[in-house]
Amino acid sequence: MTESGTMVRGNSAWPGVMEHYRPFLPVEPGEPVVTLREGNTPLLEAPRLGAVLGGIRLYFKLEGCNPTGSFKDRGMTLAMSKAVLRGARAVVCASTGNTSAAAAAYAARAGLPCYVVVPGGQVARGKLAQALMHGALLVQVDGNFDQGLAAVRALAGEHREVELVNSVNPYRLEGQKTAAFEVVDQLGEAPDLLAIPVGNAGNITAYWRGFCEYQRAGLASGRPRLLGVQAAGAAPLVEGRPVARPETVATAIRIGNPASGPLALQAVAESGGMLTAVSDEEILDASRLLAQTEGIFAEPASAASLAGLRRHAGAGLLAEGMTVVCVLTGHGLKDPETALPQGPQPIRAASPDAASLAGALGL
Ligand SMILES: *Cc1c(COP(=O)(O)O)cnc(C)c1O
Questions:
Q1: I need a surface site. Which of 53, 135, 151, 169 has the fewest CB within 10 A?
Q2: Residue with CA closest to ligand 1 atom 14
Q3: 358 CA from centroid of ligand 1 (Å)
């Protein structure tokens, strides 16, 4: 019996995406696996929102349920394992937040130092707390994400002992494609449409690769159309040119010159899908709707996917009975400061007794 065969049964039997999907990944038996048992995230049906959107069969892929609260863990397990395999002495990334949280956690697990470059003052507090708590060395730079990425790429090129774990690291996308496998495994088929937020454009590229590979392997009969959603203030792929000063409340997709832009455009075209942009107001509306009608707390960038669906619901993209998967890329607790003003504000009771409470609550 293998070591894993002696473990407690139940959910803890899930070994993480590298073990579970090993035949589809560039991993040989016996290679080191750095894992926090990422993946196997819920695919949650949302009948109320599905009805509102014209009677579609709507599902949310809850990537915020990954160990560090975003899909970045799927690629980080592979990137970190390969860094260990080749004897890297440290890892480095530029990050709008979630990559740094994942890199820091997986580096801690691997026993490697982690260096993180973040655009000054633009990272959600929860993500910053994660990176620091896991012991990453954080360098704040005056500049945006795109400039930070260029800097760490050059650094890793000159210092070969340091492994770059941004999504330009090919192992990141290989790991992230497992989310598409899971969607098909959970639905029993490929959905008709997949809505997904787009920042550096790695994830949409990885999903498409996953759907294509599953179809080729005979594990899915079709592939979904892709709806890639950018924030209006950071929509280089929609506008067809880089955005020098990207701005949006959805910090995880505040990227003006996506590294995987060309691949993403190709994926969307092959799928017969489309790219769209949504305003910050639409993003915040969608995140409130998710939280208050379906009980799902997603970070703003994630809610962009639902905002994109809502924008095109009446425009012929959606038809009754269609199966639609909306990828919610990160957990709402990542960005409490953006969330706090969104809901009802606290009320005061004059004193701690039932009568005062009833008065405050209007009962
Ligand atoms: C990284 C990230 C994105 C964007 O993914 P890309 O691969 O950069 O397009 C979207 N949402 C969240 C929560 C993220 O962390």
A1: 135
A2: 252
A3: 44
Rounded CA-CA distance 281/190 in Å is: 31
Nearest to 21 by CA among 206, 201, 210, 223: 210
Ligand 1 midpoint to CA 198 (Å)? 6
pLDDT at 10: 54
Atom of ligand 1 nearest to the CA of 301: 11
DSSP conformational letter for 330: B
Give the residue, by CA position, lying nearest to ligand 1 atom 13.
Answer: 330
Q: Let me know: does 211 contact 205? Beta carbons within 8 Å.
A: no
Q: Look at residue 12 in the predicted model and tell me its pLDDT.
A: 65
- Return the pLDDT at 2: 39
pLDDT attached to residue 7: 44
| Structural tokens at position 241 | 């040119």
Alpha helices in 96-248 (DSSP H): 98-110, 125-133, 145-158, 170-176, 178-187, 202-216, 236-239
The reported pLDDT for the residue numbered 40 is 98
Q: What residues are paired with 137 via a beta bridge?
A: 115
How far is residue 88's CA from residue 97's CA, in Å, rounded to a whole number?
Answer: 23
98 in contact with ligand 1, CB cutoff 6 A: yes
Q: Bridge-partner residues for 225, per DSSP?
A: 193
pLDDT at 136: 97
Name which of 332, 248, 342, 325 is nearest 298 in CA terms: 332
Judge contact between 200 and 167, C-beta under 8 A. yes
Using CA atoms, how far apart are residues 21 and 181, in angstroms rounded to an integer? 8
Q: pLDDT tens digit string along 120-138?
A: 767 889 999 999 999 999 9
Would you say the pTM of this structure is higher than 0.85? yes
Q: Which residues of the chain register pLDDT less than 70?
A: 1-12, 121
Tens of pLDDT, residues 64-78: 999 999 999 999 999
